[in-house]
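Sequence of Secreted frizzled-related protein 1 (Salarias fasciatus).
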Amino acid sequence: MRSECAWRMIRLAVTVALVSACGASEYEYLSWKSDSYHGGRSYGKPPQCVDIPDDLRLCHNVGYSQMLLPNLLEHESMAEVKQQASSWVPLVHKKCHPSTQVLLCSLFAPVCLERPILPCRWLCEAVRDSCTPIMEAFGFPWPAMLACDKFPQDDVCIAMTGPNATVATQTTGDSLICPPCDNEMQTEAMLEHMCASEFAFKAKIKEVKRENTDRKVILQKRKKMLKAGNLKKKDLKKLVLLLKNGADCPCQQLDNLANQYLIMGRKVDKQYLLTGIHKWDKSSKEFKKAIKKLKSHKCPAFENVFK
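Predicted 3D structure, token representation.
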């Protein structure tokens, strides 16, 4: 009886203060949608509170230390959570919206409460609208598992409170750079770009042309292949890459055609997208570290997530 009375009070409004990676933030919980766990779906084992492991990179610094398992994406094992969540770490690093991590971790690693709570629909829509252009630049759509219309609008939901919660990060110059061109000499960024790519090679750029909202990157003939993927030799000779939605965003690499570059890409439909470009600079410790790690680096399975 006492517990039921407490939950009635919580239904009115509960604000739980948590500490995020960027400092103090607040998650707001408003009312409860139902008494059943995750819409009444059945699981092989009952939900339990478990520690968020350090190697769950997406959420290990989200601001709370325990999560519900199974989670709200129907992952029943921690191994499955880690495998699927790893694909989203690069998007958080792109800083396309200040609440990207909040949205994702509310599903991958839901906070331990007596009853689970989904993110608010408007939060999902705000993150989706800000981050979709970044994902499209790498040839990935906003996935069906994050369809915003399935999240609550008036019932229980998690919202990020604060003045910039619904606005994409626009305070730093980095946020304006074309996504495949940012963090040019950072090892982690190079590896993330490599993982989002099907092929990679060393080459010089012959010409760059604007084409509607994109930029067309025409390469010189000589190329040293580092990662072939499904790219055939005949395709490599006449390869032209497209910097998706890159007509107006800055990319300093494309302003200097005298350099050699580590160029990465992937085929989407009938187009070859530029997914990463980094100056070939062996005097850079970060660059040498990235090249050394390329063969052994384990990439997340993007194709199993973004569909």
